[in-house]
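hiii so my PI (J.) wants the whole complex modelled not just the main chain, which honestly fair. so below is everything: three entries, each one labled with what it is. i double checked the lines twice but i was tired so who knows lol
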Amino acid sequence: MATILSMPKWGLSMKTGLVVEWLKHVGDGVQEGDPIVEIESEKATNEVDSPTTGTLRYIVVNDGESAAVSEPIAVISAPGEELSDEQVDALLREDADQRRKKAEALLRPHAATPAGAAPSAGASVRAATGAGSRINASPAARRLAQELGVDLSTVTGTGPGGMIGREDVQRAAAAEQEATSEAEEKTLAVDGVNIHYLVAGPLRAPHVMFVHGLGGSLSTWSLNLPAFAGQFRICALDMVGAGASDKPATDYSIAAQAEFLARFLDALGPDWRSVSLVGHSLGGAVALAFAQRYPERVERLALVDSAGLGSDIDATVLDLMRSEPKPEHIRAELTLFFAHPGMVQEVLVEQIRQQRSQPGARAALLATSEAAFGGGRQHDDFREMLAGWTKPLLIVWGDADAVIPVAHARAANRGRVEVLAGCGHCPHIERADAFNQVMLSFLGEGAPLI
Amino acid sequence: MAVAIRQLTYGQAIYEAIRLEMRRDPRVILMGEDVAGGATIDHLADDEAWGGVLGVTKGLVQEFGRNRVLDTPITEAGFIGAAVGAATTGLRPIAELMFVDFFGVCWDMIFDQGAKLRYMFGGKASCPLVIRTMIGAGMGAAGQHSGCHYSVFTHMPGIKTVVPSTPADAKGLLTAAIRDDDLVVVFENKMLYAMSGEVPEGEHVIPLGKADIKREGDDVTIVAISRMVHQALAAAETLEANGISAEIVDPRTLSPLDEETILSSVAKTHRLVIVDEDNPRCSAATDIAALVADKAFTELDAPVKLVTAPHTPVPFSPPLEQFYIPSPERIVATILQLMG
Amino acid sequence: MTVKDANASAPTLDKSTLLRMYEQMKTIRVFEERAGKEFASGKVPGFVHLYAGEEAVAVGVCSHLTDDDYITSHHRGHGHCIAKGVNLREMVAELLGREAGACRGKGGSMHIADVNKGMLGANGIVGGGFPLATGAGLTAKYNGKGQVAVCFFGDGAGNQGTFHEGLNLAGIWKLPVIFVAENNGYAESTPVTYHMSCRDIADRAAGYNMPGVTIDGLDVFAVYEAAGEAIARARRGEGPSLIECKTYRYYGHFEGDAITYRTKEEEESYRARDAIAALRRSIIKRQIATEAELDAIDAQVQNSIDLAWEYAEAAPYPAPEEALTDVYVKYP
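here's the output for the full assembly
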């Protein structure tokens, strides 16, 4: 996938930039992070790093030429990608198209339909917005909308001339609360891959994404989600290759899964732009990978018996996971997961057996396991990344975790650490109430913890 | 301290306030055209004298004599100016400007002399003068005897303006005005003189600059001035039947204005309608609207509406005069439209 | 200061002039008493201030005036309106606030005017007329056609600041203004002996460089003669004059006034000197007309006023929205 390098915007007042000198030539390979071009603005001259690894395929703006901020200055093709001249043209035209549409959209507030309203209600909403100008809302309504986090463009006005009043805003906020506190189970296609997920909670509340671990699915969080759905907008997904989601032949590395998670969040909507992540086991490593790539998108990070904090992992569990999904194998696997044998219930065993027996499920599981833990040890290490992590961080661990040792909890020497006694690898299941308390207090905090 | 409550008319309440203050302070004198009436007429027993054109000050000359209750010739500039001079030199005069519309005749004495002398003399002089004057249409008194014009006085720095709407308020505010050391103009609505109400006996003082909530409500604030309070109360009954609860704020004093009470009320109801019998340009109504637009902007769920007289003199013919005066019907219609 | 002898000029006036004066005075008297009666019955809104008793002044003065001359009046202005020729029906309609009124119902009793006939309005502001009359005098002088302006005012108004300013201006510019004081002895309920610092209003004329006379305002001939002199002076360009007419109003300052400040005896003594009765006697005595002729005029006058009331009471009110018109010539 080619990347367009655009004229950067340094500060609010920069309108255009001058290309002083290309540091690479067309046809040169570039590494992500390499300085690729020198740009001069009114206030500064700086080197711009390549945003990606690939080949400098085409230069749009040459040395000594200027371009407006956000306009393309070069095309970088992906490693091994061949792009014809026509394809480069098409790419640039498509980019121009998108930028134009974006600019137009900014001028006209989008006439989104209010929560739960039928499409025919669009007419009254348009009455409130008027033809391409200010939303017709009273000062009190504006203030209240801001306080309650209501998007005025989604509110129907019942005042004179269709003006939005305080009561209209209150009604909209209440409707949102009601309409969205029920849990919805849905499927969303991301790059052609159908992802099964669950979403619940008030639309305007802080957003939290739950990521399960290797061999698991969103149902791993079933004892937890209800506790959060009242206060938070929560989502739990079956990762690609797991649960009821598609299981294509694809890259199942942690990095790839983190990318996939990013695109899943994009597909969910702009309100998932910024999110808190809760990751269990391998899901924790995926969360860490995501946080590394997109730190600006992460509000709070919670890791539960997470991978990615050291190299140790129990080989026996991995062997059992990779073996044929027979009840005895699964039972044995679960025994290692939990501290208390009583947690290994037949219902659970059967549920897992069914899941792992789906077409493609085993292959995906094997691929994931291999990528992350091939050779009986963890390949991805995020401790250094965490050393520079300044946002709120919670690490929860079962003191009797037989899969990934509890020592990893303190390996990063960062964040708030909560070790739950009498739990194995799944404290969120084994001591759900205690876990929920800890998580709620963390997610609901105001100040970041270092 | 006042304990007992009994009924007096607005006119009687004013009389009582003047009488009590004249008893309390020998420096208080009353002057104006026919405020006693029948000056130097030998045969005339004082209790047959006019006591003011509508009889409000009848009886005072008997008690206080013609040294303290002075009939003046019809020379407003002369005697209002004299009242300013007397006030500046130690007396505490109450001067009656029979109809507010006559203020043109003596405006220089009020606004250029009385209102400004304290300021211009660096705070070293004061003018503790009360001017009582009649306002209001509804009597068919036509263009030169029916105006309100408190807006013009309120506009002037150095003048305090008082607009009582009930007998009790009239007594309390006039008493406060007489005790006030600044130039206070008390606007008595002539249509209210016969109105009865409970008036506390004895000393009754209502501080200047304090509004009164004449009716509590939740959906809309009506700030109503002088007689318009009663128009608003009538409108509120109709509105209640339509499920709309109106809060009526009576400012009682326009200068100084009780901003807090008005702003608190708007913060509660989020809607404001101002009812003012004065003409609408540069008026008390527009003044209050600007205050609210500034200090309670984000409380407003609707534009501020003004229900006022039109930008015309007061017409004589009854249907025209009734059109001129803000009516309960007009107030109701404005609010119904406001609530959508 | 001269007090003119009553009836001195009577022989020099011709019959038509005398009968016209009689008719006008009678019209005023009947008009006022009818107005008072209708007011008491509640038909007339607002206030009325009756001129009855003072007819000789309005008629004696206005007999010398044409439609080209100006007069200003005051709250007690019906008499001046009638003497200046304002239409009776329009006057009554105005009292009743009808669209057909002289001011389209917008002014009422205190503001009746007919600028086309030189009647610059009754006025609710005591003393409001002095500067206005002086201004009309300025126009008259400017036009150079021999027009004059007459300012009718009461004893109360003689104390207003505008008296001083109006007379001073007329004096320094030598304007053709005749200031006619109707001294009826009371400003509202306050007697002239209290409110005026000089004995006669005419005493003040000297201070403004104009002649001042005090005459018996109940003698229409005395008024006629004094006014004639002053008006002729003014028309010749010799400047302003002040005429003080001692007169009497039969009714209160306004209708509703209990008039406790006057005695019945006093009123009766003035009624005995009634100006209309005196004129009638004079006409009869000099055999200028018979009782029957005068009675016929009486009947005619009564009829005109009855018709005027009939007309006015049937006339429609203006539409409420008319309250918004006639403020400006053009706006914006």
